[in-house]
Structure formats: structure tokens, C-alpha cells
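Blinded run. Sample ID left blank on purpose so nobody reads anything into the name before looking at the predicted structure. Input follows.
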Amino acid sequence: MRQSKAKRWRIEPGDETIEQELVRDLKVYPVVAKLLVNRGITTAEAGRDFLYGNVGDLLDPYLLKGMKEAVPLIQDAIATQKRIVIYGDYDVDGITATSLMYRFLKRCGANVSYYIPERQSEGYGLNEEALEHIIQQGTELVITVDCGISSYDIVEGVRDRLNMIITDHHTAPPDIPRAAAVINHKQPDCPYPDKNLSGVGVAFKVCQAVWQERTGAEYLDDMDIVALGTVADVVPLVGENRIIVREGLKKMMTSPNMGIDALVAVAGLQGRKLTTGHIGFTLAPRLNAAGRVTHATRAVELLTAADMATANTIAEELQETNLERQTIERGIHEAARQDVINQGEAAHKVIVVAGEGWHPGVIGIVASRLVEEFYRPSMVISIHDGVGKGSCRSIDNCNIYDALKSAEDLLLQFGGHKQAAGFSIEADKIPALRERLAAYCEANLTAEDYVPIIDIDSELEPGEVTVELVDQIETLEPYGMGNSTPVFAINPIAVQDVYLLGQQKNHCKIILQSQIGPLDAIIWHGADYHREVFPDERVKVAFSLQKNEWQGRISPQLMVQDLALLDEQPIKLTAEGLREMYVIVRSIFRSATAPRYIVESEVLHRHPDNQTNKEAMLSLDVFKELGILQEEATDDGMALYRWCHVKEKLELITSLTFLKYSA
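Blinded prediction complete.
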């Protein structure tokens, strides 16, 4: 099983007539007009709303069904000091929704506390045991955030003893719980026009409605918390969500919540312009780590901290928890990845890997990483006491829920949606599950479905890539689902040089040639390109754009989504050439191991003139197959080669790479 490298480019056709109208009516640059059309924005009014919408355009919270019933209950509970419990969830949407509602009700003088279930022992959503405990404590009102819409039976069991207000954003089932009030824009007959709010977004609308009743003013505080949860939950960043996130990012950089400020500091982002990428890939994982490894209440304590010293202490704890999560995840990922490689053809259609004692809190992340690397529907299973708990992630054209449905007789339970799902299974049935899912994929997917697609907004000439272009497209920020980061393409362009970057030398920088000077292209986790792409070769490249500032100079920087060679060079491996490379490679090792990037860099600089760069690099693959070289890694992830002394005679015919390129 090899990594998925080839990608399909799908270039947006655009609409020149509409683009010209938008340029005229909105006074925007042609590239901005094209990007708007690509995102389905085809009128000047829609364009103005998208580009210039502000807090004054937020919708009336009373348009939400159930709001007029919920607000008096909350007002009464505040006024009479009834005990209120906010029942949340352990993901970032639930953490931020809990924090927002708790801070708001405290500000209103309420007698309020919160409860978040433990991820492993209680799982998602309302549970009877927790509610019974809450009732025994004398609670008179429970407000759920980011959960509850699917808990009809549980609500029925307590509704005569406890007032409940359900606020949620998940798809509503046929039977809506008979709570005192239910606020969910996706429930039947809800007239609220924006159906994309996150759980914290719905909680924010409740706060707005209560604040209107209490003060007559708009409630716009804590929008940084709302933005954090909105981005983390990967809801479409259009409509209200776009306004919330834009305003929340501003607040993060001017007057942030103390907990967010502390989190930004430990993440090393102080002084930087914060983006949705920083939220999704840097801040949110640190909050999520609490729910995955310890308990999510610690993350709520961070966002509700009353002083900076407390916030800093908790942020440092979450930083350590996240490092622990990364260590756990890295170990499981490496074991899972090796299992995929060892399975060979068995993992060709679908990936199913399992491990005894794997931490169930990180298997979803590992499944996502396997999809990124191999582009196969991927299922990672943690086995405890003979029962496996599985997490699934899928590819574009594979409905993973339907795939599980085809094997439901093998499963103890399952649930989810098209792209992500979970299940439990008896461990001895995992091989049968792998076979069943492979059969499903064989019947429902084509070979083309296993090639990832990159949507290209526009093709550019190298000379068009300027700082001014980056400034123009930044008007579309913030980016996220429903408004993805613009992707451009250049085809063809020549390579000038290739470098490795980062402490572990696991990132790649390729310098490309253009009429107006060199263009820097960065490939995160792209170390493979160092041994596959060489100076003077022609490539095509798909990329997003950002600015790079270095020593006072600002230049455009290409963040590579895909890069492929345009010309295939002939490759010929010979026994004599490999003998020459053996001597060179052996001389590089001054001890038993050497960093992989040093070995490969030396090979590129020292190989014989009668061998190409590619042929020299392939010699390393031959040596690995012969057992002369062995790949390893340090504890912090640095890739190494180990030189192995092989006593028996080496037979080149045992190397598949040699056989392939020696004919």
C-alpha cells in the first residue's frame, strides 16, 4: 500500500459576464469577482452582504422557534435564584457554548453551574444517571448546549421533575423532545433563515435574546469565544457565521478573553494576525486535548477564568495535555500506518486497522491522517476487553455510514454521517468487517474515486503572483467551510532549487522560476519532494497564497496543495552504478545512524556524473530493500537511516526497485 500522490485538478469555469458585472457594481478586482462567482455569489447584493456584512446584519434571535418560551424561563430563574445547570459537551463547540452561557448567566447574577459528560465513560449527549444526579442537587432548570435534540426518551423520563431548555444545532430527529423549550434552527417549522449555526452560535442567540429583554441592547460580548467554537465545529462560514468569526477574530487581537489570550501565548501566536487556520489547527486542538485525554471541564475553567494568573496556569496545563495527546497520537498513527503498509492489497479498497489498548480519544485523528496519506476510507479501532471501538473517516465519493450499514450484522452499534462515523464491534469480527467493507467499496467506488480532487479557482501566469494579488484575495477572509481558501494553479513552471525546512527537516521549500524573480513554494510535511523533484525540471503546481515577511521584505509565498512533474525522465539502474553508490553512501555514515536528510543531501551532491539525481535517490530504495539501510526515527520525529552490515551475499534480483528500472 503506497501513499496517494496523484491528484485530479478541477478548474472552476467561472462566468465572465457575471464577473464583469460584479467588478462594475462592487468595485472589486477581477480576481475577487471570479472568486465570488466560484462561491455561488452572483449578484451585487449577495456580494455586498458577503464582503461587508457586520454585526448590524445579525438576525433577530426571536426568529428562532422556541425562543419566546425559553427567555421567560431563564429570566425567572435568574430573578428567583433558582439553581441552573448548563449541560454541555466535551468537544470545542460544546466547551465554548458552555463557557459562553456560564459567563453570560453569571453576568446576569444567576445561580448557575455546568456539567460536561466524561468522553469515554459517559459519551456524547444527555444521560439519565447524570440528570438524576443533577436533580438530586436541587436543580430546577437545565439548559443544554450543543446537545439534547436526539434525547426524546431521556427528557421524557425527567420532564415532570425538571424544567429543560434544549439548545442544539444537530439534525433534528422525527421526535423532538418535549422539553419546556427547544431551540434548534433545524427543527421542523423553525422560520430562522440561517441554518448553519454551530452549537455555540445557537447559545449566543439565546444570550442575545435574554440581554435584549434585560437591557434593550444588543449583546455582542464574548464573540471571540463564539468564533472559536464556530470555526472548530467546521460549520459553513457564510451568513451569520461569517460575521461572528470576522468580529471574533478582531476581538482576539484587541481585547480577548483572558483564557484565549493565555492559549494564544502558549501556542506561540502572540503578536501575529490570527486567522481561522490558527483557530482550527492550533488553538482548538489544545482545548480538544482536555476532552480527549483528561476532562473537558478544564478547558471551560480556562475560558471562564477570572484572572490572568489562573488562565496562564490552565493554558500551560492544556499545552502539556496537548503534547501528551500528540505523543499518544503519534505512536498509534505510526503503528496504524505500518499495519496499512503490511496489509498491502488487503488495504487497497478500504483501510481497517486495530490495536489493543489504543487510546479511543485520538483514533478519529489517526483515521483522518490515514485518509490524508493514503486517500482511502479509513477505520481505526481501539480494542479493550475483547470489544473494539472504531472511528471512521472517508473520502469524497464514499458514504461511510452506508458502508457500515452494509455490515451492520457484524456491529454492536454504529452511527454517523457520510464523511465520519463511529461503531463498536466484537474484536474477533474485525477481519470479517474488513472483507465486507472491501466488497462494499468494490461495488460502489470506481478507480477514479480513489484519486483526490483539488478544486482550482483560477490559473495564473507566474508574473501575476504578487503581494498586490494577496492583498486583493484577503478581502474574502475569513476562510472555512463554504468559503474555502482560494486555490490557484501555474502550469508550467521550472524548478530552481529544493530545500528541507524545520527542526526535523520534514517540510520542503521549492524555489520556482518566474519572469519577476524566484517564487517560494512551501510544502508542509513534504520531505518526499526533496528526493523526487530536482532543479531545472518542469512542474505544475496548485497552491494558496500568503505573505511572507523576512528581514523587512514582504513577498508572496505559495502554500502548495499539489505539485507534479510534467516530464518523465528515463531511468536506468545498473549493478555497476549501484556499486558506486554503495561506496558513496557507506562513506556518509560516521556512526551507525545518520539523519535521512543528510544522507539524501550528500547523495544528491556526490553521485557520479553518469547518474541522474533520480537514479541516485532510487539507489537508496534498493539498499533498503536489500537490508543495507533501515529507516528509523528519533523520539521527536527526526527521520534517520541506519547502516546495517549484511554478511550474506547481496542479490540484486531481490530488489523490486532494481528489477523495475534495470530492464
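Unblinding after everyone has recorded impressions. The mean pLDDT is 93.
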